[in-house]
Amino acid sequence: MNEELQRSLAAVRGEIDAIDDQLLDLLNRRARCAQRVGEIKAEHGEAGFIYRPEREAQVLRRIQDGNPGPLSSDSVTWFFREVMSACLSLEKPLGVAFLGPLGTFSESAAVKHFGHAAQLSPQVSIDDVFREVESRHADYAVVPIENSTEGAIGRTMDLLMATPLQICGEVVLRIHQHLLSREPSLDKITKVYSHAQSLAQCHEWLNRMLPQAQRISMGSNAQAAQQASAEPGAAAIAGDAAADRYGLPKLASNIEDEPNNTTRFVVLGHQPTGPSGRDKTSLIMSAPNRTGSLCDLLIPFSEAGVSMSRLESRPARHTLWEYVFYVDVEGHRDEPKIAAALEQLAQRAAYFKVLGSYPLAAY
Q: Between the CA of residue 272 and those of 54, 329, 347, what are the distances in Å?
């Protein structure tokens, strides 16, 4: 290495070191401000909820809108999410329940939304995730609600009808499925373990590449990876988190049939969420059993100029051949036009429940 190159590199590295020192100082200054926010809340008797989804969403959007590059918006959003996560943990680490074990896409969604400083609590079923937060053993739940390929997650939708928890956030996670195994090649694979949704998402690839392999549904992709790691001739379909956690090599990557395969998760907690400026409201309703009743339920949204982004039916479990409808609309329930539409809807619907208003996914 010549002397001119060494001097040039030394100058840039010295600048990097100086910037790192500034970053360290600024990060700790930010942490002290976050601590002061907690102290002010405690002084005024509002220390119950330290996590404010609407405030975090506003911070992340401001950062994204002001990002000049060269770092991508996803990169700076991830960085600031982790900074906020670490600052919150100084006051009280957030307990977050999700469908486990460790290594599931649900874990990835929980970390994406709450950062690595959150205390993650894996559960064996979606029912247990709800119960963990309802009993206040955890602060928040992260549960899958729909997949772009396979549609709604029925158990989550059923539990939303009865839970006292409110939706306070959403996470959109791009799903990449991989075939994981300790076997050296595809011709050694006789069994494929995975969650039923993941098996369905990779159906055509399996038909083409492993037509003779037995497909076995598991409670989660992470459980499938655990099983495959200990069984000769076995493979699992799972994501990067499971591959890393269970030390399984990838025999094939990105085997999902749909290239834009995405899962949407909702975050559940005990508190209502204030307006952030870019929000969504979710609700459940059922129509009286008469001609045109569903159309009547949609009229308040149309008249108020409220945009509906989702309308999905689900069998009502208490009555044969009757249905409830899950609806997402753009905006917050506190906005006047949405509040007026919801008031009319409550008078018209046979059953009506607002699941929550919450910020749109940050990234």
A: 10, 17, 22
Cβ–Cβ contacts within 10 Å for residue 351, how many? 15
What positions carry a catalytic annotation? 263, 265
Q: Is the separation of the CB atoms in 176 and 254 below 8 Å?
A: yes
Domains of the chain: 178-252 (3.40.190.10), 279-359 (3.30.70.260)
In this predicted structure, the answer to whether residue 323 has a pLDDT above a threshold of 60 is yes
Tell me: the pLDDT tens digits for 29-56?
999 998 888 888 778 776 667 789 999 9
Is residue 320 pLDDT above 60, yes or no?
Answer: no
**Chain mean position to CA 310:** 17
pTM of the model: 0.87
Radius of gyration from C-alpha coordinates of the chain: 24
Mean pLDDT value across residues 265-286: 95
DSSP single-letter state for residue 186: G
> pLDDT per residue over 131-176, tens digit each?
999 999 999 999 999 988 888 888 999 999 999 999 999 999 998 9
Residue with tokens 């159906």: 203
Q: Which residues pair with 132 in a beta bridge?
A: none
Q: Indicate the pairing of strand 279-286 with strand 234-238.
A: unpaired
317-330 in b/e form (b: 16+ CB < 10 A) is eeeeeeebbbbbbe
Give me the phi and psi of 354, to 5 degrees please. Answer: -85, 120
